[in-house]
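the three lines:
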Amino acid sequence: MKTMAELEKLKEEARKNINMRYNKNATRIQVGMGTCGIAAGARRVLNKFLEEIKEYDLKKIMVTQVGCMGECAFEPLVEVLEESGTHTIYCRVTERMVEDIIEEHIIGGKPIEKYILSVAKR
Amino acid sequence: MLERIHILICGGANCAGGGSKELWREFNDQLEKRNLVDEAKTVMTGCFGLCASGPIVVVFPKEVFYEHVGVADVKDIIEEHILGGRVVERLLLKEKVDKSKLKIYSQLKFYAKQKRIALRNCGSINPLDIKEYIARNGYKALGKVLTEMTPQEVIATMKASGLRGRGGGGFPTGLKWEFAAKSVDTIKYVICNADEGDPGAFMDRAVLEGDPHSVLEAMAICGYAIGAHQGYIYVRAEYPVAVERLQLAIDQARELELLGDNIFNSGFSFDIDLRLGAGAFVCGEETALIASIEGERGMPRNKPPFPAARGLWGHPTNVNNVETFANVPVIFLKGADWFRSVGTEKSPGTKVFALGGKIQNTGLVEVPMGTTLREVIYDIGGGIPNKRKIKAVQTGGPSGGCITEASLDTPIDFDNLTALGSMMGSGGMIIMDEDNCMVDVARFYLDFTVDESCGKCTPCREGTKRMLDILNRICEGEGNAEDLDVLERLAIMIKDSSLCGLGQTAPNPVLSTLKHFRAEYEAHVFDKVCPAGVCSKLTNFVVTDLCIGCTKCARNCPVGAIQGKVKDKHFIDLDICIRCGACKSICPVNAIVSKPMEKGGEVSV
Amino acid sequence: MSLKIQITEEKLAQLYGTMEANKKKPGPLMPTLHAAQKIFGCIPLPIQKIIAKELNESIAKINGVVTFYGNFSIEPKGKNIISVCLGTACYVRGSQGILDAFADELKIKPGETTADGLFTLEATRCIGACGLAPVFTINETIQGNSTVQTAKEAIRQIRHQS
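prediction for all of em together
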């Protein structure tokens, strides 16, 4: 990196990749993967998302891991960011729930109320 | 004030994007125009969790929810609803607000009172991709510093920001940098202290795992300010994920030449290497940490000379903690004045706390300094589970102390917590309820320090051991009247005469519990009973008349020591009871207590 | 409990390799010890001697450093390492009971290895998964929200597999 302009250019490029506003109908799925998230099973959840997306041959879906989201008591946490700017945080996500989220939310467009950061008893 | 009407405008991210600020302004203008300011009050709130229908406006007292409110609708709401008392039908929320949604709202309180500076990117960017950090203005602060500022200006900005070391001591970071900058040497070092040993604190881990580049960027800024070209991150080996992500981050930064030679064509070169800790708590002390990097036993050294004068391999060294560094780039992006506007005058900015123990929402929270403990525990943390009452809040880990319920309204900052006999520490906040025995907690911390004392100086090595012996005796039921005084004397002696921070603060948990919970110590020593039912030799569980006969305790007793019929008072057979406490913690009405043996009964002393 | 460790030519070559690389950096001892611990599972005296000679330090110093840090061990450990977190958050949620349960099930004290070399039981300090307290780890896997039952079940599973 030699100049600020160079950094700015890289930033704009990166922004376009990440920011939903530049991508029509795209969705970004973030899985909280700090140590605690991984311990709670986030890796399995992440893999399940990848599997399902492949299975349904979904386009414009980006699955990414992020760091600790803070709400450790509700791990694993998954945040779905949509083009509309809607952020939906799902908590205590299991592989089974991933299927539902893909089918009802990502494909069907309806967030699943009962999974949204509610206090689910184990 | 007697405002009859409250107008809540959602200030959550989505509604704000939809123009809730403008709404708020319009409401205030209109109310003023109509002389309604004394009647109605407008409040910007956190997210209602109804983002799809935003911007949301709720009018109390009837709790009417309006959706998709625009500036043009404000007039209607005021004329029709506030003045006319008629609900504006066309704006009503179409979807019924059911209970589950209200639950969502209360959950989101978790985020509402927080302000994320150090954790700004944690949980929203991919830590494995430097570009995501750059997209969030990453490395812009470094670019700005290298191309527009002199090292003196960098230090001046840091001093102006008032940032204080987040590792526990609270020493002004700008001053620390200045000392290192003023030391004359061709070789200097920057060290990031990521040896987060405080049991129960994990904010540094969250930053390293979730936003490693913010630390790298800050270290480079620090290197430029003090004139160092090499940085080390000393990270715990217990954090394998953090180690892996840091290494990847360093590699990516090198590839983009954000680390290495001649960064931003400024002539400034800087590189960073990782060093792993090996399970010694004392290495969190900066001189011990330096000794460990040098390949010695991690024992603290005498100060002065301070590391700023003679540190790693004898060269001037600046050591800051992870969270401190994570704050640095933001200060340069948004300015020292902005940073000062958050928090309190003497402790600007935010602090990250790791909420743990007996609390509903365990997790990481970042709040502006000056937030009260009560807000953190009840509003963000969701309070104590199982209808228990809070007994104490432990802050500062093995170096800190306990704060009682009476002090929960104290605004959190470095000086207030010290005044309460505890300390900020690295930010562990453990909540304890009635089922925790404070003598046992003190013993637990002392056990930790005895284990982790490096053995270099006698007061810490021998003194803490003696204190632990006494506490063990008390917990076993063999304490005597003298013990409490001896404990106190020893504690003060160790505080006064130990070499490093570990020894100087090790007695704090004992001193603060002795101060606030002396009665509990006395119950152990004189009545030979542990009221919380933790110390097994001093526990005699008795069912009181509060018992509703729900049979929960009997069903959960692992040895079948509890008898009783439904709706009848139960009875615990102490000959069978193994004092595990399962019954006490499961009882819904708190009817099981630990009491001294009845007179006439056999007192086991 | 005399578990033999294998010092093979191959492993030695690996150690010499890392030492060569580390010698180029300042402060080579700690990275070398980490590597040795990883390669052999412990750092017994013969290995300490090799490191001392190669890095030009006294054996006394190497031994001093090895014994100072909790993560380095002189004796080999069992095939499965069980660590129960005794960090504060876990402790107040009852991790001592979990540790006791393991000790009871394995008939060893914390810090010891079972006679068959299958298990080593350790008490560890905070691993930073406080949200899941109480936690224990088996090898690298973290088990959160643990109970006496899950602890005993975990042991049964490993015994069953081997």
